[in-house]
Amino acid sequence: MLSSLILRFGRRDSRLRHTVETVLESVRQRLQAQPLCYGHGTDNAWDEAVAIVLAVSHLPDRKESLREQVSDSQMKDIDSIVEKRVTERLPLPYVLGSCQFMGSTFLVDRGVIIPRSPIGYLLRDWEWITQHEHIASDLKVAKILDLCCGSGCLGILAAKKFKAARVKMIDIDPRAVALSKKNIEKHDLSSRVKVLNRDIRDAPSFLSAADWDLILCNPPYVSVRDMEQLPAEYLHEPEMALAGGLDGLDLFDSIFEISSHLMSPSGVLIGEVGGSQAAFCEKYKTVDLSWPDLYDGGEGVFLLERNALDSHT
Predict the structure, then answer these.
(1) Measured between alpha carbons, how far is residue 141 from residues 67, 201, 304 in Å?
(2) Could you give the CA distance from residue 133 to residue 161 in angstroms, rounded to a whole number?
(3) In the prediction, which pLDDT does 246 show?
(4) What sign has the CA pseudo-torsion 42, 43, 46, 52?
(5) Any residues with CB less than 8 A from the CB of 250 and at least 6 apart, and which?
(6) CA-CA distance, 109 to 174, in Å (whole number)?
(7) How much is the average pLDDT of 270-285?
(8) Could you read off the pLDDT of 93-145 as tens digits, one per residue?
């Protein structure tokens, strides 16, 4: 990756102006000099510089690109992006209009939460997860339900992982639903993936069959206290996609009830509760669920099988 190649190969001759390498270094320095917060697809100034320069130059992320020239017009575009990022504290995907998540490109809208859920890692490593988290060996994922789908990234990643599965996504926000439709079309999945503009709490009334093998849910879960402490970048995201009430758990009783009605007998719920995990564990301490190791980052993702859910409800 270019973010590490600069360190590995060193700087080129300083007389070579406007090469990808020199521009990367300049952008990195500008970003690093500011009190920015990362976490929307990158976690440091190097990676963000790479994302900016490659997005404008349309060059591949490989060693040979370091020597390519960056035109004056591209330099102006890069400068404009960096200026927005620094002065407005906008998350980079909102500036670029798209982001990379789990190796796929997703369109981004400033009214919809940016893709970043660690549930994506669990989908990628599904075979390992099923072996180490004691998921029912007879689980065949044919139908997937994505609750609070946002941009549609998780449902789309699930459709790519389980290539024969049909996916239904639900979100209460019409703007999120509109963006999900665009991403479904972008990934050529319209035949298998559908999205509904509904309140997930009504799901048992319009999804009556209990045959959903995999339910994904990344709901609003940020507590009141944590909402008050969010960095400026996160305040650009819609509050309704983040705020989960006093303890961050407002929706989880409904999520468990929905899942108990809709999950297949050997089905699995994958939910995310993030920094509200401690409050979640206290409230639902009798629920037999597991917290897989998120070795690629993130926190607060749980797995819950149908039989454990039945014992709770």
Answers:
(1) 46, 23, 15
(2) 18
(3) 97
(4) positive
(5) 220, 244
(6) 12
(7) 96
(8) 999 999 999 999 999 999 999 999 999 999 999 988 887 776 766 688 999 99
What Å distances lie between residue 197 and 149, 172, 290, CA to CA? 10, 5, 30
Q: Could you write out the DSSP letters of every residue in the chain?
A: -HHHHHHHH----TTSTTBHHHHHHHHHHHHHTS-----SS-SSHHHHHHHHHHHHHT--SSGGGGGSB--HHHHHHHHHHHHHHHHH---HHHHHTEEEETTEEEE--TTSPPS--THHHHHHTHHHHHHHTT--TT----EEEEES-TTSHHHHHHHHHSTT-EEEEEES-HHHHHHHHHHHHHTT-TTTEEEEES-GGGHHHH---S-EEEEEE----B-HHHHHT--GGGGGS-GGGTB--SSS-TTHHHHHHHHHHHEEEEEEEEEE-GGGHHHHHHHTTTS--B----TTS---EEEEEHHHHHHH-
The pLDDT assigned to 127 comes to 87
**Contact predicate 168/174, CB 8 Å:** no
Which pair of structure tokens corresponds to residue 161?
Answer: 């992982």
pLDDT of the residue at 5: 42
* Beta-sheet pairing, 143-147 with 98-101: unpaired
Q: Which two tokens stand for residue 56?
A: 């404008």
Q: How many CB atoms lie within 10 A of CB 78?
A: 23
DSSP secondary structure, 72-123, as one string? HHHHHHHHHHHHHHHHH---HHHHHTEEEETTEEEE--TTSPPS--THHHHH
* Cα–Cα distances in angstroms (integers) from residue 24 to residues 64, 77, 81, 82, 295, in the given order: 14, 14, 13, 12, 28
Domains of the chain: 2-96 (no CATH), 110-312 (3.40.50.150)
